[in-house]
Amino acid sequence: MEWTGVNDLREKFLRFYESKDHIILPSAPLVPRDDNSLLLINSGMAPLKKYFTGMETPPKKRAASCQKCIRTPDIERVGKTARHGTYFEMLGNFSFGDYFKRQAILWAWEFITTVIKLPEDKIWVTVYENDDEAKDIWEKEVGINPAHIVKLGKEDNFWEIGSGPCGPCSELYYDRGEEFGCSSPDCKPGCDCDRYMEFWNLVFTQFDGDGKGNYTPLEHPNIDTGMGLERLACIMQGVDNLFEVDTVQKIMQHICSIADVKYKENEKTDVSLRVITDHIRSTTMMISDGIVPSNEGRGYVLRRLLRRAARHGRLLGIYEPFLYKVCETVIEENKQGYPHLETNRDYIIKIIKVEEERFAKTIDSGMELLNGIIDKMMSEDIKGERLPGDMAFKLYDTFGFPIDLTREILEEKKLSLDEEAFQKLMDKQRERARSARAKMGDLGWEDDVLSGLDNKVNFTGYESLNGEAGIVAMVCEGQLADTIIEGQKVAIVLDQTPFYAESGGQTGDSGIIFKDKNIFKVIDTQKSPTGQFLHIGIMESGSLKKGDRVSASVLKQRRQDTMKNHSAAHLLQAALREVLGNHVHQAGQLVDSGICRFDFNHFSPMTAEEIKKVENLVNEMILSAIPVTVESMGIKEAREKGAMALFSEKYGDVVRVVSMGDRSVELCGGTHVSNTSEIGLFKIIKESSVAAGVRRIEAVTGRNLLIHIDETEREISNALSSLKAGSLSDLTPKIEALVSEIKEKDKEIEKLNSKLASGQIDSILSTAKTIGEVKMLRASFNDMKTDALRTMGDKIKEFDEPVVAVLSSATDVKTTLLVVASKKAVALGVHAGQMVKKLTAMVGGSGGGRPDSAMGGYTDVFKTDEVMAGADELLTAMLNG
Asked: CA-CA distance, 57 to 527, in Å (whole number)?
C-alpha cells in the first residue's frame, strides 16, 4: 500500500470504473434539482434518484461519480470531535438494471487490492444475515478468508427507507490494528471501538418493500455503492481522521499560520481549528454552486457555517476578516477535481469577505449584550436558567446572530434557551412577512387537475406570433370544463401555441384566442408545475369548447418591447462583467414590455462613473447593429463556446444558445430581437440593493425610453417653474442659491438655540444641588428639539468644575433623555453612558453613550419624575463606587 493523495485517489477510482464501461458523471451541484425533499445534496445517490425511480432514463446503465455532499444534522459536534464534518466527497459506482451483486463485489475487490493495493489480510466484510449469495461470492469467488466475513442483522446490513426499492448491503472494513481496539476477544466489524473502519458500502437494491415487512423481487435490480473519499484517504495515508489527510491538513495549516497556533497543542484551540477547517470547505463549495448567505433555507445554512467559523476565528485571536484568505487554499487543493472553483475564484472570495465584514460589524455588539446577560445569570448562580426568548430574538433580528450560535455559546456556559418563546416571536415575524407579500394569484390546482395531460409543449412563438391550435383542456374555478361562456375567468391549454409562458425572468405573453366571433382575451401565460402552457384570461364574447380549433394571436407590440428588454439584459450582463469584473453573475431578472430589471452579484453600490460606463457600453453594442443568433447544441459544446449559464437553472443535454457577436453568449430559452439595433437605445434609471451582495439595475429601452425622456422633461419644467428659473441653464445656479440660503438659516437657528440654551442654563443653575464633590443639574422641557438639548448639554460640559446634568424633553409619544458630565466629573468616576443606560432601563427604555455625553429615550412620558429621582441615587453610587 502506497501513500496516495486525495486528488489521486479520486482520479484512480473514476478511471477504474471508466475502464469497466461506466459513464463518469460530473458531481451534481449541491443545490438539488427537481427534488424538494432535500435542502442540500447529502449522498452520492441523491442526484441519481430520478434514474433509480424510473422518472428519467439514465445516459447509460453503468455510471460512476465523485459527488460533493453536505450534511449538517451534527453541526454542533463538528470540532468537538475529529470524526464529524459537514462536507465530504462520496465515490460511487451505480448500475441501473445492468450488472448486479457478483460484478459489484468483484470490481470492488479488484479496485482495493490491485489499484490502490490495500493488504488483503486487513480487509473484512459484513453481509446481511440472510444474504448467502453475497457471502458465497466473497468466500468462493473472491477468496476472502471466511473468518473475515461477518453476518449482521437488518439494522446494520439492510437498506430501506419506508416503502419502495430496498435490499441487503455488504460493507467493507479496514483493520487498523489491535492498538485501536477494545481488547475483547469478540472484537470484529460491528464493534463500537475504533479498530475496524468501514469505508465502502455496496447496496444491492433487489426488492420492492411495502413498508410492512413484505418484499417483492424487482424485475431489474440495481447497484448503489458509496465510499467516503476522505475516509479512504485516512487509510491510504495512515492518519487518524479527515482533518489530517493531505488536502484538508493544508487548509488547517493556513489557518494555523494566520492565528499563529499549532494543531494538537491545546484542545480548545484544536476545536476551533477543526470548526474553521470544516466550515470553510463547506462554504467554499456551496458558494461556488450558487448559494448566497441569507436568513432562509440553504442561504441560512451557509450564513450559519460562515458565522460559526468567524466566531471560532475570534476565539483564536483573529479579529480581522480571514476566511476569504483561507478559501484560496480550499480552491487550490480542490480545483483538480472541481475546475469551476478556479472559474468562480473571485466571486467566492468576495462573497465570503463581504459576509465576514458584515458579521464583524454586529458580532461585538451582540457578544457584549449576550455576555452581559450570561454574566448576570452566572453571578446569580442559576446555571439551570434559560435565556429569555425575546433576548435571543433580539440577537437574531438586530445583531444578525444565528440562533444556533447563541445556543452553542449558552451550552458552553451550561445554560439553555427558552425555545418556545423564541419560536413564537419567529412565527410572528414570518406571519408579518407573509402578510406583506401581495398574492397575485394562486395556481395551486394545476398539478392535480392537469396531471393526466401531455406536458410536451409545441411552442411556435420563436418563429411566429400567430397560429392555429386545438383546445386540449380548460380550467374554470379549479375544475376541468368542457365549455366556457362569456364572463368566465379561465385557463386554456392548447396543443401548440405562439404564446410565451413566463420563464427565465421573461413575463408571459398576452393577446387573444378566437374562433369566428368567439373571443378569449389572454391576460397572461404561465407554466403549470407539470409543464403545460396556461393561457390565463377571460371569455370576452361567445363561448368555446374543448376540442375546438382556434386561432391564437400574440399582442405584437407588447412582445416586441419585451424582446428588446430581454436582449438588452444580455448586453447589460456583458457590460457589467467588463466594467465590474467576472464575479458578476445574474441573480435574478424581470423583463417585460415596460422595463429591463436585472439583479446581479456585486458587493457595493455602483459609482456614477461605473453606471455611465456600463450604459455607454450597452448603447455601443446596440448601435453596432450586431446580429443576434440562436443555436441549439450540446451542453458541453455550449460551455466550450463560453456560454454563460444560471447557477440555479436546470439544463438538458441540448441547450439553446443566444449569441450577440462575441460580446454576449448565454444559454437562454427566451425570445429576442434579431439584431441589437432593434433595441433602439438603453438608459439606466435606477441602481439599488435588493439583498446582501446583490445589486439591481432598472433600465428602459425603445419606446419606453422616449416615455422616460418625456416624463423627465416634464419634471424639469415643473422644477424650473417652482424655482422661477427661465431656462435649464438657470436651474443649477438657482438650486445652489437655495441650498446656500437654507444653510444660512440653519446657522441662524443654531445661534438662537445657543442663546436659548444659555438662558435656560442660568435658570437650571439656580436649582442645582451638590452630591459629594459634584454639582447636579436637572431639568425637564416640553417639545424642545434634540439639537437644542445637545447645544445646552455641550455648554454644560465645558464648565471648569465637576458638573453633571440630566436633561429631558417630552413630546406626546416619547421622552428624550440627555446626560452630560464635565471633564472633572468624569475624572471623579462619573460615566454618562452608564447613567443613561440604567435610567432609561428603569422605565422600559434604552440608551447609552460616552463617559461625557449620552442619550436615550423612553415612551412613558409620565415616568420622568422617577428618572430624575433615580439620577441622584445613581450619581451617589458612582461617586462612592
From this structure: 24
For residue 730, pLDDT beyond 90:
no
Query: Could you give phi then psi for residue 633, rounded to 5 degrees?
Result: -155, 170
Question: How far apart are alpha carbons 216 and 367 in whole angstroms?
Answer: 58
Residues near 457 by beta carbon (within 8 Å), at least 6 away in sequence: 496, 497, 501, 531, 532, 533
Q: How confident is the model at residue 750 (pLDDT cuts 50, 70, 90)?
A: confident
CB under 8 Å to 336, separation ≥6 — which residues? 7, 11
Q: What confidence tier does 337 reach under pLDDT thresholds 50, 70, 90?
A: very high
In this prediction, residue 732 carries a pLDDT of 87
Strand ranges (E), 717-862: 769-771, 774-782, 803-810, 815-821, 846-849, 853-858
How big is the chain by its Cα radius of gyration, in Å?
35
Mean pLDDT, the chain, rounded, equals 88
Cα(161)–Cα(498) distance, integer angstroms = 45
Report strand pairing: 164-175 vs 123-128: antiparallel
What pLDDT score was predicted for residue 56?
A: 81
In the predicted model, what is the mean pLDDT of residues 209-214?
Answer: 84
* pLDDT of amino acid 377: 74
Q: Which long-range contacts (CB under 8 A, 24 or more apart) does 177-181 make?
A: none
Q: Averaged over 845-858, what is the pLDDT?
A: 91
Cβ neighbours around 438 below 10 Å, total: 5
> Does the pLDDT of residue 493 top 70, yes or no?
yes
Q: Which of 129, 136, 187 is nearest to 157 (CA)?
A: 129
Q: What is the pLDDT of residues 777-794, one digit of tens each?
A: 988 888 788 888 888 899
pLDDT value, residue 816: 92
651: confidence class by pLDDT, cuts 50, 70, 90: low
Distance (Å, whole) CA 282 – CA 79:
14
Nearest Cα to Cα of residue 603 among 352, 867, 295: 352
Q: How confident is the model at residue 382, as a pLDDT?
A: 46
**Cβ-proximal residues to 426 (8 Å cutoff; 6+ apart), any chain:** 393, 396
- Note the maximum CA span of the chain: 107
Using pLDDT thresholds of 50, 70 and 90, give the confidence band for residue 84.
confident
* DSSP letter for each residue of 222-250: EEEEEEEHHHHHHHHHT-SSGGGSHHHHH
Handedness of CA 88, 93, 97, 101 (dihedral sign): negative
Q: Could you give phi then psi for residue 159, rounded to 5 degrees?
A: -100, 120
Higher pLDDT, 358 or 462: 462
**Residue 583: which of 748, 694, 460 has the closest Cα?**
694
Of all helices (H) and strands (E), which one includes residue 521?
A: strand 518-527
774 vs 449: CA distance, rounded Å: 81
Helix (H, G, I), strand (E, B) or coil at 95: strand
Minimal CA–CA distance to 338: which of 774, 623, 11?
11
**Cell numbers of 532, please?**
403545460
Taking a C-beta distance cutoff of 8 angstroms, is the pair 472, 453 a contact? yes
717 Cβ neighbours under 8 A, 6+ residues apart:
none
Distances (CA, A) of 294 to 278, 402, 447, 501, 691: 20, 11, 30, 29, 8
Question: Would you state the cell numbers that stand for residue 328, as one nine-digit string?
Answer: 484560496
Q: CA 574 to CA 352: how far, in whole Å? A: 24
Other CB atoms within a 10 A radius of the CB of residue 104 amount to: 22
Q: Choose between 750 and 550: higher pLDDT.
A: 550
- pLDDT tens-digit readout, 370-391: 888 887 776 664 445 788 888 8
Given a contact cutoff of 8 angstroms between Cβ atoms, the answer to whether 409 and 378 are in contact is no
Q: For residue 562, what is its C-alpha cell?
A: 419585451
| pLDDT at residue 448, as a whole number | 54
Report the C-alpha gap between 579 and 320 in whole angstroms.
29
Best CA proximity match to 572, nearest among 605, 599, 609: 599
Cα 160 to Cα 103, 203, 645, distances in angstroms: 22, 10, 37
Helix (H, G, I), strand (E, B) or coil at 780: strand
